[in-house]
Write a structure and sequence with these properties.
By secondary structure, the protein is mainly α. It has a domain of 141 residues. The protein is built from 22 helices and no strands. Helix 16 runs antiparallel to helix 17. The protein is globular. It starts with 6 loop residues before the first helix and ends in an 8-residue tail after the last helix. It comes from Geomonas subterranea. Keywords: Membrane, Transmembrane, Transmembrane helix. This is DUF2029 domain-containing protein. Pfam families: MptA_B_family (PF26314).
Length: 465
């Protein structure tokens, strides 16, 4: 008789098979979706396939905490690239924001300030006529800040086409994936956790598919965070971190809510240097667009007062009070209180180099960023699916059931595309809006109860929200 293989050998064989099968299954699901000629008519299939992928990512997180995966950075980035290539050359179907990007970037390359006038008030040159005709809300001056304009111009320089701009944004997104790996190592966390973003269907669809710029903002935010961890104890390091964070905030304004965390984790003697770098970064990026940059206030004001989509908390509060203005102000107050409560617990980095202490405090700070981002998404009156890219980029550091669920439920809001594409009617679904909010809340509650039951029974459970 032959002896059965040791348990460790069986476990190793199982882990190898799982490590090989998981990326293949994720790629197969996205390949099925990429074969659809019109995603706006394939929303049910998209939500089903992405649900499978998010379940696989949850399995990766659960199993990886117990039996770590041995995926190397090259494999993680290679699979990430392959997934993005599936959608790179397809037209942007789920969103038409990229045409505004091309319009702004093309004008900037021609030496025209994109804040000078709204597209509707401008005569397009020959090379931008098709782009001009596809811009949404052409009556408004661009709402995108100066750093975003720089990215638009860089992407528009690659042929001035949708594919060229998406190619540039995908490259930036892959840089973001690389930054995640570097930061995970710096924080003494396993590298395999980077797949929670790199293989996540949300950035694949929203950046490679629709060409959204949000990945650029998060790449700059993580760069600023990494600079603080590595050289924040020096004047130039803290100042450079502040300047890079200013650039992140001027790609999309949402990262501004994470500014207090960066400021507080900077070593105490260097916080003023961080603030000075931030102010200098704002000035250097904004001055070239003055005085016309002031006109962005009109577009931002209209967005803040009038825009709403998939905001369950906003809809509920407005229905209870009868006032949309009150609901917006109340939710802003709730968010600010939440930010204040979380940042008050964030410890500063040590003045003297200490890798272990820096890693611990860095992990604590990123968990705070994750919680703040979750609160932002659940309280904003307007929750477009690509807004959740900010949360997805933080999943590798603080992932839990609520975050994974929210990164999927936001895709349910694309249901609105079906009647809009067929009938030209924008009909939001209250049950979908409720699910986007309540599903992650239920997942968080279930994880808390599970963790408490596990503690009572002596069984540990992965941390996260």
């Amino acid at each position: 008789m032959t002896c059965p293989p040791p348990a460790t050998d069986r476990l190793r064989t199982t882990q190898t098979a799982v490590s090989f099968a998981l990326p293949l299954l994720i790629a197969a699901a996205l390949l099925l979706l990429a074969r659809e000629p019109e995603l706006r008519l394939s929303v049910p299939l998209m939500t089903g396939l992405t649900a499978v992928i998010m379940a696989l990512l949850a399995l990766i997180l659960y199993r990886g905490e117990r039996h770590p995966f041995s995926w190397c950075p090259a494999l993680i980035l290679g699979v990430a690239l392959a997934l993005r290539l599936l959608f790179l050359f397809a037209p942007a179907q789920l969103s038409d924001d990229i045409y505004r990007y091309l319009w702004d970037g093309g004008n900037l390359l021609r030496g025209v300030n994109p804040y000078t006038a709204a597209p509707a008030a401008m005569t397009p040159p020959d090379g931008l006529k098709a782009v001009h005709a596809a811009i949404n809300h052409p009556e408004y001056v661009t709402i995108y800040p100066p750093a975003a304009q720089v990215l638009f111009a860089a992407g528009s320089a690659i042929g001035g086409t949708v594919t060229g701009l998406k190619t540039f944004l995908v490259l930036v997104d892959l840089v973001l994936c690389g930054l995640l790996i570097l930061l995970l190592r710096r924080l003494q966390m396993p590298v395999w956790r980077a797949v929670l973003y790199a293989w996540n269907p949300l950035p694949v669809l929203e950046i490679a598919g629709s060409g959204h710029v949000d990945g650029g903002g998060m790449a700059l935010f993580l760069t600023a965070f990494l600079l603080l961890l590595t050289c924040g104890g020096k004047r130039t390091g803290a100042a450079c971190s502040g300047a890079v964070f200013a650039a992140a905030a001027l790609v999309k304004l949402f990262p501004l809510v994470l500014g207090p965390v960066l400021f507080l984790i900077a070593p105490r003697p260097r916080r003023l240097h961080f603030l000075a770098g931030f102010c200098c970064g704002l000035a250097l990026l904004s001055i070239p667009f003055l005085p016309d940059l002031i006109r962005i206030r009109e577009s931002l004001g209209a967005y803040a007062r009038n825009w709403e989509f998939a905001g369950f908390a906003f809809n509920t509060l407005r229905g209870a009070t009868g006032s949309g203005s009150f609901a917006r102000l109340a939710l802003v107050a709730v968010l600010l209180l939440f930010v204040a409560a979380l940042t008050s617990r964030v410890p500063g980095l040590p003045n003297a180099p200490n890798d272990a202490a820096s890693a611990k405090q860095g992990r604590h700070a990123l968990r705070a960023c994750y919680a703040i981002t979750m609160a932002l998404l659940l309280t904003t009156p307007t929750l477009q699916p690509w807004y959740a890219l900010m949360l997805a980029a933080l999943l590798p550091f603080a992932a839990g059931p609520a975050g994974i669920v929210l990164c999927w439920t936001v895709l349910l809001t694309y249901r609105v595309q079906i009647p809009y594409f067929i009938l030209g009617q924008w009909i939001e679904s209250p049950p979908v809006t409720a699910a986007v909010f309540l599903a992650p809340a239920a997942a968080w509650l279930a994880s808390v109860l599970s963790r408490r039951l596990g503690e009572k029974s002596g069984i540990s459970a992965p941390c996260g929200n």
